[in-house]
Amino acid sequence: DAKTTQPPSMDCAEGRAANLPCNHSTISGNEYVYWYRQIHSQGPQYIIHGLKNNETNEMASLIITEDRKSSTLILPHATLRDTAVYYCIVRALNTGTASKLTFGTGTRLQVTL
Amino acid sequence: DADVTQTPRNRITKTGKRIMLECSQTKGHDRMYWYRQDPGLGLRLIYYSFDVKDINKGEISDGYSVSRQAQAKFSLSLESAIPNQTALYFCATSGTSGTLVDTQYFGPGTRLTVL
Q1: Do residue A99 and residue B48 have CB atoms under 8 angstroms apart?
Q2: CA distance B56 to chain A (A)
Q3: What is the residue-averaged pLDDT of chain A?
Q4: Count of C-beta atoms within a 10 Å radius of residue A21
Q5: Which residues neighbour B109 within 8 Å (Cβ) at sequence distance 6 or greater?
Q6: Residue A94 with chain B: CB contacts under 8 Å
Q7: Which residue positions in chain B have pLDDT lower than 70?
Q8: Which residue of A has its CA nearest to B31?
Q9: Sign of dihedral through CA atoms B48, B13, B69, B94?
Q10: A92 falls in which pLDDT band (50, 70, 90)?
């Protein structure tokens, strides 16, 4: 799986959009970009994933650059409950072997009043 | 109700004891996983199961064993617990079809302390 680079921490004011960047310059053509988050000591929570098109769901939007070397997770209206560590993961699907997720160090997002 | 449940949520045990952590899911997924998380080390895969007859070792399986009793249940055992197995343990599941194929969903975790 391709490696990812994320800033270690970010702050965001409540109600504003949180834009979390991720670099994955060695991504392969069959690898997806996944985002998870982990609120302190809770189980990681799936947010969104995509291959090359931008994606949106009820939680967030995912913007992937045309060359697929980077992406941005957007939380449109951050709340205090969005304070968590956010992980960007690049992986292929259904490889037939362990479909394990490799979590890096992530970005610690702090949402403030 | 949670789709992936883990019991117990917290456990304190002594060195040498055998303990079992249990995971149940109502998502109808075929694939289940056990991870452990240590501070600063991220999640590491212990065992995974693609169906009830297919169990595989992950990257850190030594000292652990698993049992897939049914599609919905996957248990992790520590045969003889040791202090460096103190960690947060997560169970996860994933499906094999649909738009969310192979997306893993995690349980709430079990905090295990081995004294």
Answers
A1: yes
A2: 8
A3: 91
A4: 15
A5: A41, A42, A43, B6, B9, B37, B88, B89, B90
A6: 96, 101-102
A7: 1-2, 99
A8: A99
A9: negative
A10: confident
pLDDT band at A40 (very low <50, low <70, confident <90, very high): confident
Average pLDDT over residues A94-108: 74
Q: What whole-number distance in Å separates Cα of residue A67 and Cα of residue A44?
A: 28
CB contact under 8 A, A99 and B106: no
Spatial contact of A103 and B42, defined as CB atoms under 8 Å apart: yes
Tell me what pLDDT residue B111 has.
96
Query: Among all residues of chain B, which has the CA nearest to that of A96?
Result: B50
Query: Would you tell me which residues 17-36 of chain A have a C-beta closer than 8 angstroms to some C-beta of chain B?
Result: 34
The residue of A40, A100, A103, A108 whose CB has the most chain B CBs within 10 angstroms, and thus the best one to mutate to test that interface, is A100
Closest C-alpha to A101, from A86, A91, A113:
A91
pLDDT computed for residue A2 by the predictor: 63
Q: How far is the C-alpha of A108 from the C-alpha of A106, rounded, in Å?
A: 7
Backbone φ/ψ region at A96: left (φ over 0), alpha (ψ -120 to 50), beta = left
Residues A11-38 have pLDDT tens digits of 999 999 999 999 999 999 888 999 999 9
